[in-house]
């Protein structure tokens, strides 16, 4: 694959290094002269000096034949513009953009720029996963598909504890895809009996978190609501 | 007409003053509180006395745009010193807030041209300068038979 990376910061430089090791062709574009000089010592001809939001700089880097453009500069407006022209002007098939300020994530979404990566959101997600007593953990949001995957620990006195999955009146579209019990996981079927202490992975429609949560971990409404809001 | 001007530099502040003199409601958003001084300069009364609004905030922040009145705006002019900021904010005004008329200052002619083709009303001072300078040279040398200039025509 031919990959153009905008921005030779820590992310851009290390990405280029890894991709090169995996036999990909890479060009990095960096607008800061000092940074360019530093990275050029290692990447040599794989880095260009210039402003990646200037169209002629992108063209010089061969964007027209790129399979992928990765926009990882420190400025969200630049990452938006680079991804937008890559996709819409140069018809690059894949783009990945970095969101520096999570509050700008809406702008990326509004302008159809996806997927995006936000370090802040990733760490927030990890915090959510690591902090105990969380009833429900978001594992994955599939926005376009209108699905998400959650993880929830079944409370001993939960309505679901001791009952078969088919007997639970889960919202339609909700599917329990995996159960983790005593350190090992299995794919349940309709007759599987849920036990207190199980960790349940479920696919559901955004907005159903609260209803689903009420079966496995009632009383965690607040968390469910918060998550529902986040995914709205 | 309610006009929101994002970016109060030489261009933005002057356009703001012209608009308010022409009797329009004008709100200005700039990330620097000092930018307000440009609005008062050369006016008999202060910007606020003339009915102008001024908000300190970053153009990319939705809250700042709302505080500056983007939801009521008939026109949004993006005139910050960043081409990409102007292009992104103009699209937010168009697509998120459905502002009827949006203008963006874009210094890079190439970007200005492409976004214009995509339906964004861009104004490119660089392109204007290029045309004026070229015309100026041609006018000054017309009739001299300079082969280079003949070619440029």
Describe the protein's architecture and organization.
Chain A is α/β, with parallel strands linked by helices and 232 residues long. Chain A folds into 2 domains: 2-120, NAD(P)-binding Rossmann-like Domain (Rossmann fold), CATH 3.40.50; 129-231, Alpha-Beta Plaits (2-Layer Sandwich), CATH 3.30.70.1450. Chain A is built from 8 helices and 11 strands. Chain A starts with a strand and ends with a helix. Chain B has a domain at 2-105: 3-Layer(aba) Sandwich (Rossmann fold), CATH 3.40.50.720. Chain B has a 6-stranded parallel beta sheet, with helices on both faces. In chain B, strand 4, helix 4 and strand 5 form a beta-alpha-beta unit. Chains A and B meet through helix 4 and helix 5 of A and helix 4 and helix 5 of B.
Q: In CATH terms, what is the architecture of the largest domain in chain A?
A: 3-Layer(aba) Sandwich
Q: Which protein chains make the most extensive interface, counting residues with beta carbons within 8 Å of the other chain's beta carbons? A: A-B, 20 and 18 residues
CATH class category name of the largest domain in chain A: Alpha Beta
> What is the overall shape of chain B?
globular
Alpha-carbon Rg of chain B, integer: 18 Å
Low-confidence stretches of chain A: 222-232
Strand content range of chain A? 15-25%
Helix content, binned percent of chain A? 25-40%
Spatial order of strands in the largest sheet of chain B: 3-2-1-4-5-6
Low-confidence stretches of chain B: none
Summed over residues and divided by their number, the pLDDT of chain B gives a mean of 92
As laid out across the biggest beta sheet of chain A, the strand order is 3-2-1-4-5-6
CATH fold-type name of the largest domain in chain A: Rossmann fold
Return the CATH architecture of one domain in chain B. 3-Layer(aba) Sandwich
The coarse silhouette of chain A is elongated
- Overall number of structural domains of chain A: 2
Name the assembly state: heterodimer
Could you give the count of β-strands of chain A? 11
How are helices and strands ordered from N to C of chain B? EHEHEHEHEHEHH
